[in-house]
Amino acid sequence: MQTKTINFSKYSSFKIGASLEVALLEDNFSDIDNYYLIGSCNNTLVGDNPPPLLMLSKKYDYIKIEEGVLKIGGATPSGKVASFCKKNDIANFEFLSHLPGKLGGLVFMNAGLKEYEMFNALLEITTTEGKLLKQEIEYGYRFTNINKPILEVGFEISSGFSQKKVAMFKKMRANQPSTPSAGSCFKNPEGDYAGRLIEEVGLKGLMRGDMCFSTEHANFLVNNAEGKFEDALWLIQEAQKRVLDRFNISLECEIVILDKNY
Predict the structure, then answer these.
(1) Tens digits of per-residue pLDDT, 193-206?
(2) I need a labelling partner for 124 at 20 to 30 A (CA). Which of 23, 145, 177, 231 fits?
(3) Domains present along the chain, CATH in parentheses
(4) Active site includes 78?
């Protein structure tokens, strides 16, 4: 299996991590269970001792229309999908213009903005073990039970790309910090907001090294300069502890933490 050296302090949206060898997945699907699959690392915190890492090769970066189905490779960036849909007047993918990532990871976590999410138009996925129809997959808010690399996703096509929706999604993201982060740190608990809870327990803006929960949006853990993994992890665990102690609510991470010691 071919490999690629990635400097995660530059590659990941958190700007945290060492330079590591990452295996490239093309046609040989044997032994991949020993690896953790990554995408563009927009929701990933890479620690000092991560598991062996794997990513899809450029072979899976494509968009095509076959028999009335929009088929997109798992390594395709969200911005490329949004641009294709705009050019071809395809609706229901406008939110991807403001949601960074690669398609496989976005589908795996059923990413989205409010009620607009990946599974709304999804028909089927192809993994390293074959094809699954939408009705064969368990999915919900930022959740699926997919446990194999996603090679391709098929979507239904509806016409009518909406520039108004693009503007709406841009406005929805306007209060989110531009400082390096991995997006929302925690999933919103039912009936409440993680950002409100973090602020209530006094962690909004509290610095630990160069890391803090943003003063712009408390559910964004941000790297203000040379943030370290251990400081990010301390803040995550401290937020979970304080919120549990005060509100009896268990905050569930939306970001992925890759470290064997976590």
Answers:
(1) 999 999 999 999 99
(2) 23
(3) 3-56 (3.30.43.10), 60-168 (3.30.465.10), 177-253 (3.90.78.10)
(4) no
